[in-house]
Specification:
Low-confidence stretches of chain A: none
CATH superfamily of the largest domain in chain A: Alanine racemase
Number of strands of chain A: 22
Number of helices of chain A: 13
Oligomer: heterodimer
CATH architecture of the largest domain in chain A: Alpha-Beta Barrel
CATH topology of the largest domain in chain A: TIM Barrel
Largest interface: A-B, 22 and 31 residues
Helix content of chain B: 40-55%
Number of domains of chain B: 1
Number of domains of chain A: 2
CATH class of the largest domain in chain A: Alpha Beta
Number of helices of chain B: 3
Largest sheet of chain A: 9 strands, mixed
Distance between the termini of chain A: 62 Å
Distance between the termini of chain B: 18 Å
Structural class of chain B: alpha+beta
Strand content of chain B: 15-25%
Shape of chain A: globular
Radius of gyration of chain A: 25 Å
Structural class of chain A: alpha/beta
Number of strands of chain B: 4
Mean pLDDT of chain B: 88
Strand content of chain A: 15-25%
Helix content of chain A: 25-40%
Strand order of the largest sheet of chain B: 1-2-3
Chain lengths: 454, 86
C-alpha cells in the first residue's frame, strides 16, 4: 500500500515582533491569483512564455465606460483622447478608438502611429515641445489640433501658415499654479505671469491661424481633484476673456491627463486603492468649475480629457516566474524574478501589488523582490510579504498597464510578448516576444570590423 | 546541528526561547524539522523523513533546509551558535 505524499512547502521561521512597527507593513496580498479573465496564469505562461504582459480588454472597456459616465452625467459635451504615450501598442489604442476616443500624441512617431491606426487627422491632438517643421506641416495639412508649447513653435506655425492654404487649428498649453507641488511650469505658457494671455493675443491677431482651444496638463498621478477644479476655472477665465475681447468662442477646453490610478506610490502609508480619487471626484471638480465660469449654455466649450494612466493601469498584468531564492547577509529573504526594472519601469515609483499565482499555505515571509538583471538597481519591491515561493512558481503583478509597455527598456534581455484577452476571454498575442534580430536588425557593421581572430 | 534544549514548541508552530524571551512562528514543515532536531535526529535522517512524507525532490529540500538551518542559527535557536552553560 502506498500513501499519498503531502504538498511540500519550504520550511520558514520568522521572529515575532509584537508591538513593534513592522517596516514590511501590514498583510497585503495573501490570495493567489490563478486566473486572469478565466485564463489560467499557468496556461498563459506555458503558451506565451514568461515574463508576459497581459491586458484585459474587458477591463479597459469597463474603466472607459465608468470614466465616460462620470463626465457625461455632469457635462453635455465630453470627448476623450487616448494618450498614446501611456500605452501605444496598437491593439490597445484601437480599443480606445472603438470606444470613441480621439488620439493624443506627443511626437511625430506617435502622430504617424495614430494615422496608421486609422484615426482621422482632425481627431488627433498634437501635444509636446518637440514638433519638427515637417511634422507640423503634416499636422496642419491633416487639420489636426496643434497644442503650442512655446513661442518658437508659435512662430514656426506662423511661417508654415504663411505658405500654406490651410489654416492651422491651434490651442495653447497653459501652465499655472493649482495649489499642488511641484508646479509644472516647463510646458506651455504661464497663466499667472501673463505669458498665456500674450500668446493668445499673438494668435488672435494673426489672420492665418485659428485659436480653437485651451489646454493644460497640471501634473501626473494627481491625488487632488481640487487642483483640476482650479485649472478648469483658470482656463475658463481665459476663454471668457477671449470672448470679451475678440467676440470669439473657444471651441474646447482640454484638461489633459494626470488622474492617479489605483497603484500605491512608494512611501505612501495607505494603499492606492484607498487614496486615489474616483473619476466622479475628478469630474465633479472639473465640470463644476466650467459650468460656474459664466458661459452661456450654447457657448459651453467641448471638454476634452487626455486621461491615460487611470484608464489603462488596472487592465495590465505582468506574469512572471521565480528564478531563485537566496538569503541576504542581514537575514532577509531575497527572491529573484525573471522580470526586472527593465520591463517593469514603474517599479521605480510604485509598490506594485504582487500576488502568487498558485495555492499556498497560511505562512508568509518578508522578502526583497529582485529582477534578473546583473545590476544593483534592479529591485522590484524593497519590502514585501509573500508566502514561501519556490523556483518556477509564478506571480502576477497588478496594475501595470500604464507606461510599462512604452517606457520599457531593451536592456540586458529582450522584451516579452504582450497578450490581450478579449471580452470573450480569448487570448490574442498583440506584440511578439523580441528576438535577437529585433535588436540587431538595425545595426550596421563596418567592413573592417567584420572579422577577428582570438 | 542541535536545537537548544529549553526551546518551547506548540503544535500551531509557535516557538519560544525562554532564555532570550524571543518568540517565533514557523510553518508545519518547519515545526516538524525542529521537533526532529530536538529528538536528536541527524540532517540525513530528517531529509529521509521529509522526502518520504512530502512531494519534493532531494535537491530542493537540501537547498531549503540549508537556508532553514541558517535561519535557526541566526535566531540563536541552535547550540552551535550559542553554547549552553554547563
Amino acid at each position: 500500500m502506498t500513501t499519498k505524499k503531502l504538498q511540500y512547502e519550504r520550511p520558514v521561521i520568522q521572529k515575532l515582533n509584537t508591538g513593534v512597527m513592522n517596516k514590511f507593513g501590514t498583510k497585503t496580498e495573501y490570495k493567489p491569483v490563478t486566473h486572469i479573465d478565466d485564463n489560467s496564469v499557468k496556461d498563459l505562461i506555458e503558451k506565451f512564455g514568461s515574463p508576459l504582459f497581459v491586458i484585459s480588454e474587458k477591463s479597459i472597456r469597463d474603466t472607459y465606460h465608468n470614466a465616460n459616465r462620470a463626465f457625461k452625467n455632469r457635462y453635455p459635451k465630453v470627448q476623450f483622447a487616448w494618450s498614446y504615450k501611456t500605452n501605444y501598442v496598437n491593439a490597445v489604442c484601437n480599443v480606445f478608438h472603438q470606444e470613441g476616443s480621439w488620439a493624443e500624441v506627443v511626437s511625430g512617431f506617435e502622430y504617424n502611429k495614430a494615422l496608421q491606426n486609422g484615426v482621422p487627422g482632425n481627431k488627433i491632438i498634437f501635444n509636446g515641445p518637440d514638433k519638427s517643421e515637417a511634422e507640423l506641416t503634416l499636422a496642419i495639412n491633416n487639420d489636426s489640433l496643434i497644442h503650442i508649447d512655446h513661442l518658437d513653435e508659435l512662430y514656426l506655425i506662423k511661417e508654415i501658415a504663411n505658405q500654406s492654404k490651410k489654416r492651422p487649428r491651434v490651442a495653447i498649453r497653459v501652465n499655472m499654479d493649482t495649489g499642488v507641488y511641484p508646479m509644472w511650469d516647463r510646458f506651455g505658457f504661464n497663466y499667472e505671469n501673463g505669458q498665456a494671455w500674450d500668446a493668445i493675443n499673438k494668435i488672435m491677431l494673426n489672420d492665418k491661424m485659428d485659436l480653437v482651444g485651451l489646454h493644460s496638463h497640471i501634473g501626473t498621478f494627481m491625488l487632488a481633484p481640487s487642483a483640476y477644479g482650479i485649472a478648469a476655472a483658470k482656463l475658463s477665465d481665459l476663454a471668457i476673456a477671449i470672448k470679451k475681447k475678440y467676440k470669439k468662442n473657444i471651441q474646447y477646453i482640454d484638461m489633459g491627463g494626470g488622474f492617479a490610478s489605483k497603484n500605491t506610490l512608494k512611501g505612501s502609508y495607505l494603499q492606492g486603492v484607498d487614496t486615489s480619487p474616483t473619476f466622479d471626484q475628478f469630474a465633479e471638480a472639473i465640470t463644476t468649475s466650467i459650468l460656474n465660469a459664466g458661459f452661456t449654455e450654447n457657448e459651453l466649450p467641448l471638454l476634452i480629457l487626455e486621461t491615460g494612466r487611470a484608464l489603462i493601469d488596472d487592465a495590465g498584468y505582468l506574469l512572471g516566474t521565480v528564478i531563485s531564492n537566496k538569503r541576504l547577509s542581514d537575514g532577509r529573504r531575497a527572491t529573484i524574478m525573471d522580470f526586472g526594472v527593465n520591463i517593469l519601469f514603474t517599479s521605480f515609483w510604485y509598490d506594485h501589488k504582487i500576488s502568487p499565482a498558485q495555492e499556498f499555505g497560511q505562512y508568509t515571509e518578508d522578502a526583497v523582490l529582485y529582477g534578473p538583471l546583473c545590476m544593483n538597481i534592479d529591485v522590484i519591491r524593497e519590502n514585501i510579504t509573500l508566502p514561501p515561493l519556490m523556483r518556477n512558481d509564478h506571480v502576477v503583478v497588478h496594475t501595470v498597464g500604464a507606461y510599462n509597455m512604452t517606457q520599457w527598456m531593451q536592456f540586458i534581455s529582450l522584451r516579452p510578448a504582450i497578450v490581450m484577452i478579449d471580452t470573450k476571454n480569448i487570448p490574442h498575442i498583440i506584440r511578439n516576444r523580441e528576438t535577437l534580430n529585433s535588436i540587431q536588425g538595425d545595426e550596421v557593421m563596418p567592413k573592417h570590423l567584420k572579422d577577428f581572430k582570438l | 546541528m542541535k536545537i537548544k534544549k529549553n526551546i518551547a514548541l506548540s503544535d500551531s508552530g509557535f516557538v519560544f526561547d525562554p532564555a532570550t524571551g524571543d518568540s517565533f512562528t514557523t510553518n508545519p514543515i518547519g515545526l516538524e524539522i525542529i521537533k526532529m532536531l530536538k529528538d536528536g535526529k541527524t540532517l540525513s535522517e530528517i531529509k529521509s523523513a521529509i522526502l518520504k512524507k512530502y512531494l519534493t525532490d532531494e535537491a530542493t529540500f537540501e537547498k531549503d533546509n540549508y537556508d532553514f538551518m541558517n535561519m535557526l542559527s541566526k535566531h540563536r535557536l541552535t547550540v552551535d551558535n550559542e553554547k549552553e552553560k554547563n
